Amino acid sequence: MIETLPLFHRIAGRPVVVLGEGEGAEAKRRLVERAGAVVITELAEGITAGARLAFIAHEDASAAETDVARARAAGMLVNATDRPALCDFTVPSILDRSPVLVAMGTGGASAGLAKQLRLRLEALLPQSLGALATALGTGRASLRRRFPEAGERRRALDDALTAGGALDPLVEGSAAAVPAWLEGASSGEAGVVEIKLRSQDPDDLSLREARLLGAADVVVHDSRIGTAVLDRARADAVRMVGGLAPAGERASSLTVILKAPA
Question: Which residues are registered as beta bridge partners of 40?
């Protein structure tokens, strides 16, 4: 189970309350302004403006608790700097490859850990990653024309974006390959694939098995298989308890049958 639900909010042009003084409050103001929101520094003004988010960075604990209560009573979701128990949401460490954003959070346990994870990933993800996302967005209509069926489109992208694929996102300059790939894209694997698990630990999946499970349209699984493995499948994949592929499954879809370890 995940303890918090990661969401990306569009707040450009909208009022957001930021209260407090000092470095903590200033950091939140910069973050909110970076996302294009209108910073409001008075809670009453924010309530009148219809703000739905509030960042409260008071050093005084009593003042923080009071303003958190007032903001919640007005229907706002609240982040209280350095006070995890008062937070409705936490602020992740953000890796920016716009429009690709990678957010690292620890539920307020350690901002330092989230920052170090971001710094490690900064060295892995090329600056051109955002350009790749933009090129794929621009080419969405062409991809739909080439592959009208959603499952085929998904598998074509999975095949291209995998390690060593035509559009490997970790390779600098992959964005330039998008037009040519759209002209000759293949739909990737389809049909029925059986995976016999070696254990209930998802880390024991081979790279190919993990890729197939993550790309599957339908997952047929033994009832003894735990959620740790099943959670590696797409959230929107159809899940069925059983041992056989569903009758009449289209040849253009990918079905993975998971067998429990002996």
Answer: 17
Please report, in tens digits, the pLDDT of each residue of the chain (262 residues total).
788 899 999 999 999 999 999 999 999 999 999 999 999 999 999 999 999 999 999 999 999 999 999 999 999 999 999 999 999 999 999 999 999 999 999 988 898 999 999 999 999 999 999 999 999 999 999 999 999 998 889 989 998 998 888 999 999 989 999 999 998 887 777 788 899 999 999 999 998 899 889 888 899 998 999 999 999 998 889 999 987 766 655 556 789 999 999 8
Boundaries of every domain in the chain: 13-91, 92-125, 129-184, 191-259
Beta-bridged to residue 191, according to DSSP, are 254
Q: Fold for domain 92-125?
A: Double Stranded RNA Binding Domain (3.30.160)
Residues 95 and 104 sit within 8 Å (Cβ to Cβ): yes
Both tokens of 180, joined, read 């040519």
Query: Distance between CA atoms of 96 and 81, rounded to whole angstroms?
Result: 22
Beta-bridge partner residues of 27: none
Instruction: For the full predicted model, state whether its pTM sits above 0.90.
Output: no
Instruction: Find tokens 């303003």 and name the residue.
Output: 67
CATH of 13-91, one of 3.10.50.40, 3.40.50.720, 3.40.1370.10, 3.40.630.30: 3.40.50.720
Geometric angle at alpha carbon 245, from 259 and 213, rounded to 5°: 55
Contacts for 106-109 with beta carbons within 8 Å, 24 or more apart?
107/3, 107/4, 108/84, 109/84
